[in-house]
UniProtKB/TrEMBL annotation:
This is TetR/AcrR family transcriptional regulator. Residues 209-225 have a biased composition (Low complexity). GO terms for molecular function: DNA-binding transcription factor activity; transcription cis-regulatory region binding. The keyword DNA-binding applies. PROSITE patterns: HTH_TETR_1, HTH_TETR_2. Transmembrane segments: none annotated. The lineage of its organism: Bacteria, Bacillati, Actinomycetota, Actinomycetes, Micrococcales. The keyword Transcription regulation applies. Residues 34-53 bind DNA.
Length: 231
């Protein structure tokens, strides 16, 4: 178990170690990373590391949880002021893509977690989905989205965001990985192209938009062409 810092200075030191771990795990991968490399990147002594973490695996799991908390917070802050669910989706997706541009390690670390810390991987996705389901369920009750299954929609939307972000933010360029986009060569990726963002959101908005009530269509309540007038 990690040790919670008791002082503001301790919080800063722990955050510095996590930031260094984010870079080292992204650059080298879990198996080639080491506590020595993490402490060197953080500029702290080995003994300081062990004040907060028991070892490499624990700091990796903490990093997954930390990235998860930060990306969810970024999405929440962006979407919470939106006037309706569709606008909230737009704001939340933009925040996600921006976070991905600033923290490309999110992709690399989460993919490593599949093999290194599968429980942390499941927790990462489940926490995102739980918040999504709550928002979609409320929006459906308010008529802001169509009659979608909130759980299925949440997983589908998360998948769209992850794959689109990987293709146009992490990889970049028109035909593949961005120039110089190898691990450790850049701390930030270009944000998603605006036309790609707009196309993605049009697709999502069409999928979520409330369906028109057939009974409200012009002439829907009157006799059809195959019916005669009623007495």
């Amino acid at each position: 178990m990690s040790t919670a810092p008791r002082t503001a200075r301790g919080n800063r030191t722990r955050a510095k170690i996590l930031a260094a771990a984010e870079q080292v795990f992204a650059d080298l991968g879990y198996h080639d990373a080491s506590i020595v490399k993490i402490t060197e990147a953080a500029g702290v002594a080995m003994g300081t590391f062990y004040l907060y973490f028991e070892g490499k695996h624990e700091v990796f799991v903490e990093l997954v949880d930390d990235l998860n908390q930060r990306v969810r917070q970024a999405m929440y802050e962006a979407s919470s002021q939106a006037p309706n669910r569709l606008e909230a989706e737009r704001a939340g997706f933009r925040a996600f893509f921006r976070f991905t541009a600033e923290h490309p390690a999110l992709y690399r670390v989460i993919r490593q977690a599949e093999f290194v810390a599968p429980d942390a991987l499941r927790r990462h996705y489940q926490r995102i989905v739980e918040g999504y389901v709550t928002g979609l369920d409320k929006a459906r009750a308010n008529g802001e989205v169509g009659d979608v299954d909130p759980t299925v929609a949440a997983w589908a939307l998360m998948g769209i965001g992850e794959i689109v972000g990987m293709r146009w933010v992490l990889w970049g360029g028109a035909d593949g990985p961005a120039d110089g986009a190898g691990p450790g060569q850049e701390d930030r990726r270009p944000e998603i192209p605006e036309d790609v963002f707009d196309q993605t959101m049009q697709f999502i908005e069409r999928a979520l938009a409330p369906r028109a009530d057939p009974s409200s269509a012009p002439g829907a309540s009157g006799p059809t062409s195959q019916e005669g007038p009623r007495a």
